[in-house]
Amino acid sequence: MEEPSKRELVLGIAGLGTVGAGVVKILTGHADLIAARAGMPVRIKAVSARDRSRDRGIDLAGYDWYDNPVDMASDPEINLIVELVGGSDGPALALAKAAIEKGKAFVTANKALIATHGKALATAAVGSGAALRFEAAVAGGIPIIKALGEGLAANEIKVVRGILNGTCNYILTRMEREGLAFADVLADAQRLGYAEADPTFDIDGIDTAHKTAILAALAFGKEPNIASLPTEGIRNIAPVDIEYAKELGYRIKLLGVVQRTDEGIETRVHPAMVPAGAALANVMNATNAVVVEGDFVGQTVYVGAGAGQGPTASAVVADIVDVARCGAGGFAFGIAPESLAPYVPVPVEKHRGTYYIRLRVNDRPGVMADITAALAKEQVSIESMLQRGRAADGGVYIVLTTHETVEAAISSTLNRFTKLECVLETPTMLRIEAF
Ligand code: HSE
Questions:
Q1: Mean pLDDT of 359-387
Q2: Which candidate in 143, 264, 286, 400 could, as Cys together with 170 as Cys, close a disulfide (CB 3.0–4.6 Å)?
Q3: Which protein residue has the closest C-alpha to ligand 1 atom 4?
Q4: Domains of the chain and any CATH numbers
Q5: How far is CA 154 from CA 212, 289, 295, 296, 326, in A?
């Protein structure tokens, strides 16, 4: 590696959005503290962003300006690149490759980049002796990468479960508290700036999938691979399901889960019924949380802000300090990159668990018999079943929970339900997460 100067760490920062401006604010506002903790001064030499004239609330006068962020990798003075451009490919990837190839430390908050190219970049970093760090890529200000890669290194991990997307948790919280429909809360969240103008990545679970793939690599040594990660978002969550969840003793949360099972390592992203007493059920609004179970340590819980200027920049600066202290020491994924095994997905049909199913049916004699017969044919055992009221059109909800079964049996049961003449709309199914 082109050793970071023993006298100072010299930075090039690519991307001056909310997080980039936050990094500049911390490094300038806490310069002495950071230097003491890093063991050397940390100096910003150059910056790059799309718009030079935008007011970001920071003074850029003392920094060199690069129109093309990739060119910063060729600046001989710079020994650490901070990438806050975003996107799995394009300039972010080009900058990562250029910096690492030259042996420069590379610190990023870019989950899509790491979830897509993580193994290749980690391998290149070991080859050139460059440091690679991405604490801010998962759960913003929560130091979950360091917790998994370092603090829990003694343990065989059993399961990692996380609320990893603040936008979804905010929407679900307001749906529950105010009894509102998903679309109404989303529109309001966009108006208030909580949700992006294009919220697809958040609400369809893609952002959570990127983060979950990275956690799978840290926890289980599996190459990050979002292509094979079953992903469902929260678009189809109805207020009535949130009400039934409460009645049954659960709260609906969008989870990213990585779990050791008899079939292999299960990785999944979906809304789930979480028992009301579980730590994750009580994480509200835009807060993120991760619960890790290791064989020796037991359960550990991490809660904090998963997004926003201060928390995300805090994680980026922690990585910068880490590089100053340790250089390229340690492995980006807590394991030698050549040991990252290809991720062979466990098909979701093999998932074993308990399930919530809601049906809208015609309320007439024989309906319960038809429903229970369909369950019996697929060997699915009912844990509870309830029916409430009757609508003017004769439709009524039947809600049931099952004992543990395999998801393939649930899929077949749902197919049977859909074919029943008494069933008025596509059944709703939610997995119940066992803690
Ligand atoms: N958009 C994400 C969230 C934050 O809503 O939590 C960045 O990953």
A1: 95
A2: 286
A3: 307
A4: 4-141+310-339 (3.40.50.720), 144-305 (3.30.360.10), 349-432 (3.30.70.260)
A5: 21, 22, 9, 8, 20
